[in-house]
Design brief:
heterodimer; A: mainly beta; 12 strands; B: 54% strand; globular
């Protein structure tokens, strides 16, 4: 079965400290991978995507993610959290014609 | 561009009533997706269209749900009859399918409450 697993449902960090949101995928071959952010009462907005080019992908708002095929991971990171980063984050995968999203990670930023 | 447009933004209805959700994709996009988001199940893909043709509807929960895309600029998701467990936020997304890395652009969602 192909799927996306977000390992943490909730993450809390202090403002100015690093952010790590974990995502693992299960696929018979390397899919396209995405991270989306959802602010309260809003739709999903693309942060970044991996499409078999550079394994380190830089996105908007200072986020980046690294594709590690050996670990089947695509973790999202940011060196320094900002209050405005508090939101729900979704990891997604597109193997072939299918689309899968993780169950989401809620990020809280403590002032 | 106005982005993906969904209507209504909020819908409250009684069990047994028909509900129709509407979506206008971004002009020029050729793929359209309907998702459902709940606390219990997260974000689920219900169905997606490519060039107005349904490609995969395996996520549609049951026969009470149906989706149509009569033309490239309009799609509907209908629930008949509606049930309280259908309460969720329904998102529409569109993309331009050129390669495997196309980006989906999401609408603001329709928040449905079935009493």
């Amino acid at each position: 079965a192909q799927s996306v697993t977000q390992l943490d449902s909730h993450v809390s960090v202090s403002e100015g400290t690093p952010v790590l949101l974990r995502c693992n995928y299960s696929s018979s071959y390397s899919p396209s991978l995405f991270w989306y952010v959802q602010h309260p009462n809003k739709g999903l907005q693309l942060l970044l995507k991996y499409t078999s080019a550079a394994t380190l992908v830089k996105g908007i708002n200072g986020f980046e993610a690294e594709f590690k095929k050996s670990e089947t991971s695509f973790h999202l990171t940011k060196p320094s959290a900002h209050m405005s980063d508090a939101a729900e984050y979704f990891c997604g995968a597109r193997p072939g014609n299918q689309f899968y999203f993780g169950t989401g990670t809620s990020l809280t930023v403590i002032p | 561009d106005a982005g993906v447009i969904q209507s209504p933004r909020h819908e409250v209805t009684e069990m047994g009533q028909e509900v129709t959700l509407r979506c206008k994709p971004i002009s020029g996009h050729n793929s359209l997706f309907w998702y459902r988001q709940t606390m219990m199940r997260g974000l689920e893909l219900l169905i997606y269209f490519n060039n107005n043709v349904p490609i995969d509807d395996s996520g549609m929960p049951e026969d009470r749900f149906s989706a149509k895309m009569p033309n490239a600029s309009f799609s509907t998701l209908k629930i008949q009859p509606s049930e309280p467990r259908d309460s969720a936020v329904y998102f529409c997304a569109s993309s331009l399918l050129r390669d495997r890395g196309e980006t989906q652009y999401f609408g603001p969602g329709t928040r449905l409450l079935v009493l």
